[in-house]
Design brief:
This protein has eleven helices and eight strands. The protein is of the alpha/beta class. The chain starts with 5 loop residues before the first helix and ends in a 10-residue tail after the last helix.
Length: 341
């Protein structure tokens, strides 16, 4: 039986405050990342939420030529990291800047609800709600629903895979009302970009640390223990494909994920490197076109260091590579696998 949750809430609150300071420092070096252009809120529960009635914020970063009346734009829907426990939708502002500079897309950061207040599967459900809300309101937002990409970092990189897996399941099993489905426009997830994802909760932290090339470079146990206890209070959920995409069946992976334009980047000195590379290989064996790279001599979250003097130059290089995948996906009509079943 799990213990009381209030100590986790206190710890999470402290770490959230520290994280806010860290990302403030992260935003200081030149070139400065862009500010978001607007925030839109919507209420959960329309589609799939087990904890309905919350207002979720979506942070919009818009191209310089944005004009929703004259054209529709591809969209990058991004999920921030933080162990499903800390972090904010604006944490990936430098990634947003790369997307705006290198692609024709708008960028939307999803402020999903966090554990321990909202444990698994609410983060995933919030991601599903966000995608469906954006598709349903594509005319208002200036979005081309035929060109949606999902991206994320760490926990958010997990959501970039688990959100389409859950969407596929909910449509297939009738969890989404057919009347709602009939009102949705056709929409397609054409690309997934995943930076240093957690893909397998079935493996213990001890085994992940043991497999790491540089165990001393990993996140401290005080932090990862908080993440795991907050997000996954019921250990039976670790085998759910909506927690561990590696636990998905071959058929689910084949049907729910795009056939190409998948970018997966792992960090050499990260405890998640082994499971991420194994997941990339499995997708390739299923016939999907995956662009996998190991970022050399990089720690988990290498691109988010709270260093006011500068940003790791590897971040810009790998952001540029990922944006090239996005651009190809947005320009290629033949790879659009429908997300609506």
């Amino acid at each position: 039986m799990s213990g009381p949750r209030w100590p986790l809430r206190i710890q999470a609150s402290i770490w959230r405050s520290l994280t806010n300071i860290g990302f403030g420092l992260h935003s200081l070096p030149s070139p400065r990342p862009p500010e978001y252009d607007s925030v839109k809120s919507f209420s959960t529960g329309t589609y799939a939420s087990s904890a309905p009635g919350a207002l979720l914020n979506l942070y919009f970063y818009l191209p310089k030529d944005f004009d929703a009346k004259s054209r529709k734009y591809p969209v990058v829907v991004n999920f921030h990291g933080g162990g499903f426990t800390i972090g904010a939708a604006t944490d990936d502002c430098r990634w947003a800047g790369a997307v705006l500079n290198d692609t024709s897309a708008m960028f939307i950061g999803v402020e999903y609800r966090l554990a321990p207040e909202y444990p698994f599967p609410i983060c995933v459900e919030d991601g599903c709600e966000a995608v469906l809300h954006l598709a349903a309101n594509c005319e208002e937002y200036g979005i081309d629903p035929e060109r949606i990409a999902l991206t994320g970092f760490s926990a958010g990189a997990n959501l970039a895979f688990t959100v389409p897996l859950m969407l596929h399941d909910h449509f297939k099993t009738g969890r989404v009302d057919r009347n709602i489905i009939s009102e949705l426009p056709s929409y397609h997830i054409v690309s997934i970009i995943s930076f240093y994802p957690v893909t397998d909760f079935r493996k213990s932290r001890a085994s992940k640390r043991a497999s790491s090339r540089r165990p001393e470079k990993n996140l401290p146990s005080i932090l990862t223990n908080l993440f795991d206890a907050s997000y996954m209070p019921d250990p039976t959920n670790v085998a759910s494909p909506f927690a561990s995409p590696s636990a998905s069946s071959d058929d689910m992976l084949q049907q729910a994920l795009p056939s190409e334009h998948i970018g997966l980047y792992c960090c050499e000195w990260d405890m998640l490197h082994e499971e991420g590379s194994a997941f990339a290989l499995r997708m390739e064996e299923l016939g999907k076109k995956v662009e996998y790279e190991m970022i050399p001599e990089a720690v988990h979250g290498f691109d988010k260091a709270p260093n006011p003097m500068g940003v790791d130059p590897k971040a810009g290089r790998f952001y540029h590579k990922a944006c090239a995948i996005l651009s190809r996906a947005f320009d290629t009509k033949s790879t659009r696998v429908s997300a609506v079943m």
